Amino acid sequence: MTDSNPDKKLIEDEGPKKSKKKQKKDDAWRPYGPRDPFAMLKTLPEEKQQKIQKALYLFSPGTDMPKTLQQAKRHKYLFWDTQPVPKLGDSITTHGPILQGESSVHKEPYSLPQGFSWDTLDLSSPTVLTELCTLLNENYVEEDDNTIRFSFSLEYLQWALQLPNGLAQWHCGVRVDTNKKLVGFIAAVPARIRVYEMEKLMAQVKFLCVHKKLRLKRMTPVLIRELTRRVNQQGFCQAVYTASVVLPTPLSSCSYWHRPLNLRKLMEVSYPGLRQNINLHRPLKLNRLSEVTKTPGLRPMIKEDVEGIHSLLQTNLCKFHLSPMLSLQEAEQWLLPRENVIDTYVVEQDDGTLTDVVSFYSISSRVLNHPVHTGLRAAHLFYIASTATDPGDLMEDALVLAKSKGFDIFCALDVMDNKSFLKKLKFSISDRSLHYYLYNWTCPTMSPDKVGLVLPN
Ligand SMILES: CC(C)(COP(=O)(O)OP(=O)(O)OC[C@H]1O[C@@H](n2cnc3c(N)ncnc32)[C@H](O)[C@@H]1OP(=O)(O)O)[C@@H](O)C(=O)NCCC(=O)NCCS
Question: From what superkingdom does this record's organism come (predicted)?
């Protein structure tokens, strides 16, 4: 936090004394706990800070959110059990909406506890975009022990949230009245999604985030309800979203795979899931990549390629049970290279036809309290489609290119046909899962290789 005393600034004294009962209600989202332990922590030497953070993580009770189906079966979903989503454990054979029509769309926004207000974020304003960036970068923790945090750039958020067909009302923020601090956010972008044989306009939900000091106070259900209301208002009845936690009910459960590009650095920052080797000689040799790409005709995508890439992707995506139906405009928005945000490469044959495409987006992270390293750059596999080149060779070239651009690690999900090359290219499976969900839609579950949709956070 940038404030010197964030506890105080987050919610200031509301003035005249209130009755005990009223005070209790108003306190619903009031931050609790000791006076800013993070500020206290920052005054300690680096090494001590890191040890304390690790210890805190190891001894903390956690948020209790289920990470596996087993745990989910024991969890009481007070909110999700009220929502039009399939029940955990149901075996589904039918396809269709759970609730019909939008008859009960609330006219007014859902009410918030006193001291908080809704704010529709105008992301074309650099000031507002910076505020969102701060909320996410301070609170969208990547690793549970709080040593690596996402560090989204303004350009990344513009790419992920400001679509030509996007709706400002779907950038839904919560602010503290007294100091206007942004403490909660949820967003959605419209997308045409194909699920099995059905095509539907859906809201693609992203960037759900609650300020750390307001966690476990049920702000999430209010954010989701309000976004649902705004989505329903536009005539959309379905949504698609992903989460690392198990909610009712995953349509598909996928795994993250990681491929080190800068193994030494990843070891030094104790990147989670990597085996700590004392002797790096052999692993470094095993992970070595060529300095140059090997596919003839491979080059960065340019604007003129949009049509060719669109057709390549759409043909490929038809193979899967869940996939986006991209318009030309969306293909350009999502794939046209933007520095440090999205890279896309195509293979152009001698006659000018495009036969293959591979794209990856970039997410940076801050490494906290490390004496040498301050940041990490991860390339995330987005879409890959090939008709002439072996997908493994194309992906190997993507690794070479990502390394040459200074990325430290390449991450991929085992969706689509990715499993055909992950092991061969020395990706290793992590213990992190990503579950795909549909809101107000029921259909049979699917294996990861039938998922043809990647939702950048
Ligand atoms: C995810 C996050 C918003 C949850 O906030 P929280 O303070 O722990 O939870 P709240 O008390 O506000 O709400 C609890 C409800 O939210 C639900 N919930 C928790 N995480 C959720 C998620 N990622 N997606 C949807 N619902 C979620 C819980 O299941 C619970 O409902 P239930 O009673 O039906 O089980 C918060 O932990 C956060 O900002 N994390 C960092 C960013 C992040 O991981 N975002 C999610 C990306 S998918």
Answer: Eukaryota
